[in-house]
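Now for today's protein:

——
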Amino acid sequence: GRAVCARRGRGRALSGVAAGAAAPVGAMNGGLKALCLSLLIVGVLMLVWMVVPTEHIVFATFPNVMIVLGFGSEGLEPISFDNNTLEAVPARQAGYLNGLYSYDHFFYHKTFDRFLTWEQRGQAMVYSCAMLCSPLSSSGTNLRLALVHHQPEPKKNLWYLLELNDDDVNSPIIYARSKFRKTPTYRSTSWLTVTPGGQVKPRDLKDVYLATGWDAFRFDTPLKIGFFAVLGLGLAGMCYRSREKED
């Protein structure tokens, strides 16, 4: 009888140890699920912020966020708003121009009128630096970094990358621009260095380009097609497993 009671006691003890070990594992699984759900919600909100169009029409031209990529592989020779050559920017520092630029319908800076007058503002759309980018000037008041789409004529469209500084007589500083395009577009835009004119020719910035959240939904590469196929199969598998557990 004593042997039976001892075996039962050991069994209960082992069951208690197993239950105690399972509790942290269950808590970890619950925490991991909560983390994944939180990241998913943040990702969805970020994606919505990025892909919302700037115009409330079916075939909008631009989304709410532009992603500037490719700066940092070579140096830049910026110019002032009145075409004066400024100090060269080394390649490493130019990398700070990359990042997310958000459409700013009410963008204002007191030096912006030197670049485009108030009467010309209707020809431009301004995206201001929102994340992962920063002005290159180390000091100043009201430092802003802006990506500007300008349409001076119906079949002339180009982009500029500007820095604005209340304390700088050269503001806005122009770091780079795109080539002219006949239609407003962010895709297939070739970027150039800027020059004061004359015999100085601009250089191609072959690594620089614009991207948007819309590009994620363009099934134009095998990688994107494969990613969305795997994602769809994964979500379907998760739904199937959850339904099996409920049954």
Q: What stands out?
A: The longest strand covers residues 144-153. Strands lie at 65-69, 99-103, 124-131, 144-153, 156-164, 173-178, 191-193, 204-205, 209-211. The chain has three helices and nine strands. The mean pLDDT is 84.
